[in-house]
Amino acid sequence: MSALVFCVVVPVVVMTMLAPSLQRTSPTVENFRGARVYSGLGIVWFVWLVFFWVGAHLLGALRIAQPAWISYLVPLFPLIAGSCAFGLFDDWVGNHQAKGFKGHLEAMFKGVLTTGGLKFIGIGFLSLFTAISLYWNGVGSALQVISVTCVMALSANLMNLFDLRPGRAGKMYFLGLVVALIAVGFSAAINLAGFDLAALALAALGPLVATWRFDIGERGMLGDAGANSMGAFLGYLFATALPLWALIILAIGLFAVNLLSDRVSFSALVDRNRLLSAFDQLGRGGDVSLAVSGINSESGLDSDDEVLEDQKRIATEQPQYEGEQVSVNHMVELGVESPDGFDEDKDNRE
Question: For the chain, what is the radius of gyration of the CA atoms?
Answer without folding.
Answer: 23
